[in-house]
Amino acid sequence: MSELREAWKLRNSLAAALEQALDWVGREIQRASVEELIDFCGSFSPGRAAGPEWVSSFDRFVELLWQHADPAVIAQLEAAFRARGPLWAPIANAFSPEHGARLRARDWRAPGARRPAVVLR
Amino acid sequence: MSGAVSLEALTEHIVTANYPRAADTFCALLKEGHRLLDVVRVAIDTTAPYVQAPSHIMPKGDGTFRGVNYDHTVLGWRASWRLTPHLPDPARLLPMTQAMWYVPQGLDVWDQVLCEFPGHYARDQEKCDEREAAQTPERAAGLPGPTGTNTRTGGRFDGPAWRPPKVHFEDHPPLRVGSPQERLERMWWAIMTGERVEGYRLFLGLAEEPEYRTRLKDTILMAGIIDLQETIIQRGSFQNIGHKALRARAMLDLADTLGWENAHGVFYTVVPDLGCTPRFHELWALTSNLLPMEFRNWQELKRANTAPLTEREVDEVVDVINWGQPGDVVALITELLRRGRALLAIADAIVIAFVHNEIHVMEHPNAFFTPGHAFDYCNVVNHWLRTYDNPHQAKALYFEAVFVNDVLRANMLFPRDPAMALKSPKVHAREMEQQSERELLVTLAQAIDMQDAPRALAAVDEYLARTGEREALIATLCYAASKVQNDPHVARKCASSIEEYRHNSTHRKDDILRGWTKYLARAVRRSTDLGCYRLFRQHFLGERGRHERPLPLNA
């Protein structure tokens, strides 16, 4: 059982670390300018991404963006990517008010949980 | 449509890329009593000289290159033929009519991508009509251009052709020098190294000797299977997405169906292309090093490993192939082999891993296209494992697992589009519970017609839960698929799904039917027009000018 205890301790430590990481991302989202957010979103494009796993984390970034960013900032992101043409439509659609409403509607936290449930990947 | 009904007329319509006339003549010939396979053979013999490409990469003149598509006519014939036993008369002729409808659109692909010959690549992929219109003042003004226009669609790249298709690879005589074993080895090496003429001539010589046929089939399948890119990620056109294997399998099926003595056109269609550029043998190199390092008995693994996978191991395969990296996939296959798991049990789990993604992850219609090739490739590999006995077969597990993982990771390179999100099939569950089994099949067919994936999945989920009957379900899916024109991938996906469903040893084999359903109801279609379906109904159901509605199945 000592192994299980150690494993569980590690799990709890990582949960705390993840909460800190999410807080940090949230603060950075609030601090970033629109241009910086646009540049960061560009890092999820196939040509600039570190790999498929980086790109596939974009959905998780969008969730945090809708939690922490000002709606006016998100509207500017949508307009910027909409203007880039149809290839960028999936990115622009992630910043549409309808998508934001959908994400908020499914926001769920377990009783006693400090934060909404987090999907890791 | 009217005109002479003869095999000569059929030939003429094919080489002039006049696909509506070719399909019309095909149907008329069958109604006149011509044997289906005789007509198919004439069609294949006619197209064989015109479906080669000098290469599958084309220099663009600026130091870069672009891809050139593989012939799909032979894939259409083989896949459509495989669907016929699952359909009642006269519906069984619909997939064959679709194959015929496609064939004249698939000639001289090299020139199609250059906008120098009509066909579906020129018309749909390269948009040659639009490109030409933009360059010609008369056309830009909406007037007939100097080369005329086709009144059917307004685009000359819809056919008919204004010149014959080119022959990019001449036919050759058989080479019979050397013992059969020597010739098999030389053929294998010639294909691997791109000696297309020698490989083809050696194949033709060996094909004449029935006593070596099983070994020849085994070798030619392996030659196709091992020519596979390591990754498609950031490789552009420098990949083949399994076409060498798919075409080798199609050739063998058709040769067995037509009779090898009648199959020269099929051989001419496929074998020279097996050695075509580009060729990829990185995975062959990887597995040729890895297996002997890990297993002293690597050539005996098929016989030595007999254990099935546990449910937990199937979960592991699903998890790693869907979410792991290539190194994880290679390590998992090695580990399963070390645990004594049977090759076919691992292969079946790889198929389940693929359909898991298809059912639960893929959303955008475009996301199904390249992965569909990986699924069909798995079917070829698994057929090879099931049918032949070859010391290299353990390597093929790595090929298929890496390929599936790679196409799924390639999909991950494109962020999900919220606008393309699918509703859960559960929203239709209550409605489906109220329907009879027969009504569920009608609902399923209609949902596929309407590209309503959640509804189609809800219908199939309810059907699978309600009954153990599968033949009428398979017939319904085959018929729904057979309405789709201009796209042999659809029939091929059907044939692969049926075969893998029949053979899969896991308790999750129904997921193959769910994945197939979602593909039919969601994957991007090359055409939503029903011209070929209409032609079929006119010929075989005696209907003229009626508006299409889903046909009730007589299954």
Principal-axes geometry of chain B comes out as: globular
Main beta sheet of chain B: 2 strands, antiparallel
Overall form of chain A:
elongated
Largest sheet of chain A: none
Rg of chain A computed from alpha carbons, rounded to a whole number of angstroms:
17 Å
End-to-end CA span of chain B: 31 Å
Helix content of chain B: 55-70%
**Structural class given helices, strands, pairing of chain A?**
mainly alpha
Total helical elements of chain A:
7
Total beta strand runs of chain A:
0
Structural class of chain B: mainly alpha
Tally of contiguous helical segments of chain B: 28
Provide the spatial order of strands within the biggest beta sheet of chain B. 1-2
Helical content of chain A, roughly? 55-70%
Write the SSE topology:
The complex is a heterodimer of chains A (about 120) and B (about 550).
Chain A: H1 2-31, H2 34-42, H3 52-56, H4 58-68, H5 71-82, H6 89-94, H7 97-105
Chain B: H1 7-15, H2 19-31, H3 36-47, E1 57-59, E2 65-67, H4 73-83, H5 93-102, H6 109-113, H7 120-125, H8 128-135, H9 137-140, H10 180-193, H11 196-207, H12 213-225, H13 243-258, H14 264-274, H15 282-294, H16 301-304, H17 311-323, H18 326-338, H19 343-360, H20 369-387, H21 393-412, H22 429-433, H23 437-449, H24 453-466, H25 471-482, H26 488-503, H27 510-522, H28 531-540
